[in-house]
Amino acid sequence: MKGTALLFMLFSWGLVLSLSTYCFSKLFTVEARVKKRKQAKKTEKRSKKAEKRTD
Amino acid sequence: MAREHWGTRIGLILAMAGNAVGLGNFLRFPTQAAQNGGGVFMIPYMISIVVIAIPLMWTEWAIGRYGGVKGHGTTPAIFKLLWKHPIAKYVGVLGLFVPFVVACYYVYIESWTLGYAVMSIGGMLPTEAAASAAPGTAQYLKPFQDLLATYTGMGNGNIYQPSIMAYLFFLVTVALNVWILIKGISGGIEKLAKLAMPSLFLMALVLMVRVLTLETPQGSAVEGLNFLWTPDWSQLSNPKVWLAAAGQVFFTLSLGFGAIITYASYLGKNDDLVLSGLSAASLNELAEVVLGGSIAIPAAAAFFGVMAAQQIAASGAFNLAFVSLPAIFANIPMGSLFGFLWFTLLFFAGLTSSVAITQPVIAFLEDEFRLKRPHAVIATMTFLFGIAHVPIFLGKALDEMDFWAGTFFVVIFALIEVIIFFWIFESKRAWEEINRGAIVKAPTIFFPIIKYVTPLFLIVILGWWTFDVLPGYLKNGSWTAWVTRELLVGIGFFLCFLVFLSDRRRRSK
């Protein structure tokens, strides 16, 4: 493949692939964080309920 | 009646990407790039993404979410919320008119891809000529051109006579759309997106690998990539190349169709839209720049040589999809399987887009007339089914509908959206609306871009079309063109009447 053609193709592909990688990695890390928070809240509620019962 | 919501964020992103990824990603982009400076086309293309596509996309998502929270999913009612003027709701009719008219012919084209997929796997596509004629000759493509002409019945006459098979596949496609739409947002559209989008990417990847390993005495796929990506620097100063790039990013993300607004109306009040919108756009770009650019043109160059590939690119998307590529697949080992993959890929791309552009009218009937979803779907699809017979049987009607609804009014509608949201509704509120609940805040540089640069760019595109392209279309005096134009005016008035009725109904309550 010609040098300039390859350069333009790789530049375009790189731009698009890095945008997708950034977006989805950010989304998935946030989703994971939200899930963790929800789970933590749930376990907290459960433990509080359990505490009340034992009281 | 409570409005529906998306089940998951990934489902929403895939549905939005499904709305954007259409036939244009695999057919329009490579031909546009090849005809407008090759690799250098990517410079105006990327700039257009930043100044037009991303700002407009965020605007549409924000308008949709704002309306959805207040119980409205379509622009007649949402524009009325944003702009307290009696005419606002009638301006918003464009958000119903554009997607509905496009859906009327899009579903028909989508049915061709289904028909061709079945014919491919069933071995019903021509193969004899492929074996006897030398590639690159007109004789080689002729059986496929004849098949397309017989299948669609599209000739030079004013009345088309499609084959019974084409009509049957059209009925099947309509039925499939009805079935998915009746199941609702999370139960139908989202499930479809979760199934169709990964399959689409997988099929495109398989085809890309196969095409890139093609080599014939006429040429190789690498030569096709060379042809597509070699920059022609002289084209960078050509305004037509810039307008072509702006037009391409506009259509590839389905901006100005009203479908994004309706889809976004099913978001929660504080759901993120900045990163979700960007993710959906990035998937669309992946399908377009990486996969779309590596299938059709490289395959044509490998089989017919670079010179013929140039002519094929200029002959238009239909020729590329339904004549050239099936001709290529007919002459490679396991060609029927690759042909099937190609047409199934196009069918999935079409199906995810057709349900998206049908949704605005359905949402309008549900939100404004309180129709139950099955009733709204049946009413919309019955109307669509009736109107679709015009492009099926009337000569040149499809081109006419595509020009007015799918090209001209799309840009007008996008311009109206930006003006209403950023100038009338007030730019600070609009900016806050975009950033509400954002996982990643939109960079502040986009504030002046959306407010000033995007509308200016749209005005330039609109001006160019009005003075350069529009006169040519209006000169087309065939009676079929005028019948289609009158029909479009009729549909517009009918939708205005529905908006009037919905407004009166709301006031009486």
Notes on the structure:
The complex is a heterodimer of chains A (55) and B (509). Chain A has one helix at residues 3-54. With 55 residues, chain A is an all-alpha fold. Chain A is rod-shaped, with a radius of gyration of 24 Å. The mean pLDDT of chain A is 88. Chain B has 509 residues and is mostly helical. Chain B is 77% helix and 1% strand. Chain B has helices at 9-20, 23-35, 42-69, 75-82, 88-91, 94-121, 128-132, 138-152, 164-182, 185-212, 221-229, 239-252, 259-264, 274-291, 296-304, 306-314, 317-329, 335-369, 373-393, 397-424, 427-435, 446-475, 479-508, and strands spanning 215-216, 219-220. The interface between A and B is medium-sized, with 22 and 28 residues.
Write the layout of secondary structure elements.
The complex is a heterodimer of chains A (55) and B (509).
Chain A: H1 3-54
Chain B: H1 9-20, H2 23-35, H3 42-69, H4 75-82, H5 88-91, H6 94-121, H7 128-132, H8 138-152, H9 164-182, H10 185-212, E1 215-216, E2 219-220, H11 221-229, H12 239-252, H13 259-264, H14 274-291, H15 296-304, H16 306-314, H17 317-329, H18 335-369, H19 373-393, H20 397-424, H21 427-435, H22 446-475, H23 479-508
Helix pairs in contact in B: 1-10, 1-14, 1-18, 2-12, 2-14, 2-17, 3-4, 3-12, 3-14, 3-20, 3-22, 6-9, 6-18, 6-19, 6-20, 6-23, 8-17, 9-10, 9-18, 9-19, 10-18, 11-15, 15-16, 15-17, 17-18, 18-19, 19-20, 20-21, 20-22
Give a brief description.
The complex is a heterodimer of chains A (55) and B (509). With 55 residues, chain A is an all-alpha fold.
Judged by helices, strands and strand pairing, the structural class of chain A is mainly alpha
Rounded radius of gyration of chain A (Å): 24 Å
Q: Summarize the amount of helix of chain A as a percent range.
A: over 70%
Order of strands, widest sheet of chain B: 1-2
First and last CA, distance of chain A: 76 Å
Spell out the helices and strands of chain A N to C: H
Number of helices of chain A: 1
Count of DSSP-assigned helices of chain B: 23
Q: Radius of gyration of chain B in whole Å, from Cα?
A: 22 Å
The averaged pLDDT of chain A comes out at 88
Mean pLDDT of chain B: 92
